[in-house]
Write a structure and sequence with these properties.
870 residues, alpha+beta, six-stranded antiparallel sheet, four-stranded mixed sheet, 27 helices, 32 strands, 36% helix, 17% strand
Length: 870
């Protein structure tokens, strides 16, 4: 601090010697406290002038206070402390919340004349100066308050600015330097520090009452380690409030303030070592150093008449018995899997710009700002999720712990659809920030993203298909259109942002190598058919799918935008955080309104003022009819599709979607109109195929999801989803063109361009040239989309049966023979009858193969009547 770094020459001028300084100090103090006293002598006059020119205004900053996370106890309707974060463990108290015996102990041991002097203890100051500044003490309570204020100012700056990258050891060393600089600086710097301390102390006395200064001192003083202030010290060392301290406890705490870490009681193996390296002040020696210091305090109290001899004797005889009660700090003290919710909320506090422009500012606010942070977690649903997780998923699988083998991971999160409030976060691992080499432990929040949870998300698999479904609906398509979802190479995809794909050659298969089928998006969604969604995407704009995902709050786990630039990405290759997946599906359940996920309901500062939260809102991003129709399709997933094993069948309407990605990741998302839950079980490390794991990871997602969905329904209920848009559920017919007479190649292109699958059958007899389409089935007209059209080319050997009606039998046979056909004909049963051809079978114009036999149908005329006899 600048005021403690002045040179001796700049401050003390020509003052010489320790005795001279002591005398001048007394004169200066007397002059300041009692200005009427006449001072003579050039040296004294000059010193007074220098003293008056020292800074006198000492700003008392807000105390470094812990930030407290709260969660609701739904049994009582009251918030309770979840945990705290602090650089200094402090619990400020009011004057009346401290036992009188504590005041007596601190005054007798540190400043018995506190209420009668003007801020400076002249005798004590002289004693400290004579010692050369090498020892503490000799200061009034007001002066010690000044020292602690200066120490806090200094410590608050540790690890900031140019020193933001300090290690913890460096920070600890810097904080010790702050203490040493303010308390035991030697030589002329020590003299100058004492003068400045006196100047500040006198100014404080002129501004604040004695009680205010005494209380301020007891709330700021260090009592060893991270324990600051009498409130935290009483609770930490003895498990009591400062109002309930006994004489012995108060005397022990009062004795600590001179050398806090020497006298601390939370190191049973010893807080110090002697010159031979042996531990002292341990449980084994009855905390001997602290006991000696306590006895000194009791002696001073007895001498001042604050206690009786009997009280003194009893307190001295009583051993010091600490009851170490650590304050809850960090997420590691939060019970169960809720530690991951805590860690996610902490990530928001430390990484969101709402709490400071830099990481150091945000961390300082978290650990020193005294904020009250009220979390959105629902402990009832959290408990249900934890039970589902612990009963169904191991923390790890032995032998599968690396990028080569994969590592088991699982996470769940539930979001209130209409608000975005995150209600629970669970994980299969145990929480620890210190254990890094055991796969059963992790500090990463799998449900979160890199910014707030340290995780980069996981491939979304088929949960990502919902964005293709939504874009399908937004472009006016019906979920009951018929498409060809058979396995095939989809050659063409439109992309208005990055360029169309016109010659895709990649063949993408279905799960378990299924062949696919001709069907509707309604069925494709229920079955999660890859080729069905590729068929849909081939009729859409890939850029539109990407934009739909983005407007529903979906980004990659590392914060970069999701990409849908190649067909495979339609099926969920982007890494996404489970919280973002849940929020996207909550948008559908919330009539198209997207609500920013949030883990914090409100924050107040130490004075009860509201603190601004990170920006969050609920915004209409989908038209209600689009959301309603998508919900209609997604309900089919949970009733008769791939998600039915997760359906609790408790009477609450539910929509959902399953997802898998290359045997690495599995998902289940389920939602009522009120709560959306996302469950992920899969590979948390590397790209290993986990299908060989001794673990049924495909079904595990259902066994985890089902009890959570049931609990969410019981707690929050749910209404029926809105009816779908009739225009988006109608059956759609397409025009099938006539391609008879075209070449097989030309006909195939014509039909495929129109969206039909083509199958070329065996050649047929036709008068068309060889290879020309002679037949198509079905014929031209209105048909369902995706209809398979069979083409039959001509073999070039067809002959049209010529007409023979009215010809004689011989003439008919001759005509048929001339066409390359054989023939048969009937005869007349009556002798003399005349036979004529009336037609053929096959009939006139029928196409038959050359050399085929055609039957001539005949009619017989009666024979002529015999001539009459002459």
């Amino acid at each position: 601090m600048p005021e403690t770094k002045r040179t001796a020459g700049g401050v003390l001028g020509g003052l010489l010697g320790v005795v001279g300084l002591s005398a001048v100090a007394g004169v200066l103090v007397a002059a300041t406290v009692t200005p009427a006293i006449a001072i003579s002598g050039a040296a004294a006059s000059s010193a007074i002038t220098l003293f008056d020119n020292l800074p006198s205004a000492l700003e008392i900053d807000e105390l470094m206070l812990p930030t407290t996370f709260y969660w609701m106890n739904y049994d009582t309707g009251e918030y309770e402390v979840m945990t705290q974060f602090y650089d200094q463990n402090r619990d400020p108290v009011t004057f009346d919340e401290i036992a009188p015996v504590m005041y007596d102990a601190i005054l007798s041991s540190e400043d018995k004349n506190f209420y009668s002097h003007g801020g400076v203890d002249l005798v004590g100051t002289a004693r400290a100066v004579i010692s050369g500044g090498e020892q503490g003490g000799g200061s009034s309570i007001s002066q010690q308050y000044v020292k602690n204020i200066l120490i806090q100012k200094c410590e608050a700056e540790v690890g900031t600015g140019d020193n933001a990258d300090m290690t913890q050891d460096e920070k600890d060393a810097a904080k010790k330097a702050c203490f040493d600089d303010a308390t035991v600086a030697s030589g002329v710097e020590g003299y100058q520090r004492k003068l400045q301390e006196m100047r500040y102390a006198i100014a404080l006395e002129q501004k604040y009452s004695k009680d205010e200064i005494l209380l301020g001192y007891l709330n700021i003083a260090n009592f060893g380690g991270q324990n600051y202030g009498i409130g935290a010290a009483a609770h930490y060392y003895f498990g009591v409030s400062p109002a309930d301290l006994t004489l012995g406890q108060a005397a022990a705490l009062a004795g600590m303030v001179q050398t806090p870490n020497l006298y601390r009681l939370d190191r049973p193996d010893g807080s110090w070592t002697d010159k031979d390296g042996n531990p002292i002040n341990s449980a084994a020696d009855g905390y001997s150093l602290t006991k000696d210091r306590q006895t000194y305090v009791l002696t001073r109290m007895l001498a001042d008449g604050k206690i009786t001899q009997e009280e003194y004797d009893a307190a001295v005889a009583e051993p010091i018995t600490p009851n170490i009660t650590p304050a809850s700090t960090g997420c590691g003290v939060v019970p169960g899997k809720a530690a991951y919710f805590c860690q996610y909320a902490r990530g928001i506090m430390e990484n969101d710009d709402a709490f400071g422009a830099t990481k150091e500012e945000r961390t300082k606010l978290l650990k020193q700002g005294g904020l009250n942070v009220y979390l959105t977690i629902d402990r009832r649903l959290q408990a249900a999720a934890e039970q589902a997780m612990t009963e169904n998923v191991q923390t790890s699988i032995e032998g599968y712990t690396s990028a080569e083998t994969g590592r088991l991971g699982a996470a769940t999160t539930s979001i209130e659809t209409k608000t975005g409030r995150i209600l629970e976060i669970t994980q299969n691992t145990n929480f620890s920030e210190t254990i890094t080499d055991d796969p059963n432990y992790s500090s990463l929040v799998y449900a979160g993203n890199l910014k707030y949870g340290g995780s980069t998300g996981f491939e979304g698999g088929s949960t990502f298909k919902v964005f293709t479904l939504l874009e399908w609906l937004q472009e006016g398509h019906s979920v009951n259109e018929v498409l060809n979802g058979n396995v095939q190479v989809f050659k063409t995809f439109r992309n208005s942002c990055f360029g169309d794909i016109t010659n895709n050659t990649t063949l993408i298969n279905n799960f378990a190598k299924g062949s696919g089928y001709v069907g509707t998006p309604m069925r494709f969604t229920a079955d999660s058919l890859n080729t069905g969604f590729l068929a849909m995407a081939s009729k859409l704009d890939l850029c539109g799918i990407e934009k739909t995902a983005a407007k529903m709050g979906v980004v990659r786990g590392d914060g970069s935008p999701v990409e849908v630039r190649v067909p495979f990405q339609v099926l969920g290759s982007n890494n996404i955080a489970p919280i973002d997946v849940a929020a996207a599906y909550a948008t559908i359940a919330n009539n198209g309104v997207y609500c920013t996920p949030k883990a914090i309901d409100r924050i107040t500062d130490a004075n009860g003022n509201e603190v601004a939260l990170p920006a969050a809102s609920c915004t209409q991003v989908l038209e209600p009819n689009i959301a309603a129709t998508a919900a209609y399709a997604l309900q089919g997933v949970m009733t008769n599709g791939s998600g039915r094993a997760s359906n609790p069948y408790d009477g609450t309407p539910i929509l959902g979607k399953t997802g898998t990605h290359e045997a690495k990741q599995t998902w289940l998302v389920g939602s009522s109109t009120n709560v959306t839950t996302a469950v992920w079980v899969g590979n948390s490390v590397g790209d290993a195929d986990v299908s060989r794991w001794p673990w049924n990871h495909l079904y595990t997602r259902h066994s985890v999801a089902k009890p959570i969905l049931r609990a969410a329904d019981a707690l929050y209920g749910g209404d029926g989803f809105p009816a779908p848009d009739p225009n988006l559920t109608k059956t759609v017919l397409y025009d099938l063109p006539n391609v008879v007479g075209q070449s097989v190649e030309a006909a195939t292109k014509t039909l495929e361009d129109a969206g039909f699958e083509v199958v070329v059958g065996d050649p047929v007899d036709s008068t068309e040239g060889s290879g020309i389409v002679a037949q198509q089935d079905p014929g031209a007209g209105k048909v369902a989309g995706g209809t398979v059209v069979t083409l039959r080319p001509s073999n070039g050997q067809g002959v049209a049966v010529p007409g023979v009606s009215g010809l004689s039998i011989s003439e008919a046979q001759s005509r048929l023979a001339g066409a390359g056909l054989n023939s048969t004909a009937g005869s007349c049963p009556t002798p003399g009858s005349t036979a004529k051809a009336t037609g053929t079978n096959p009939g006139e114009g029928s196409v038959v193969g050359r050399g085929s036999t055609v039957n001539i149908t005949v009619t017989c005329s009666a024979p002529p009547a015999p001539a009459p006899s002459p």
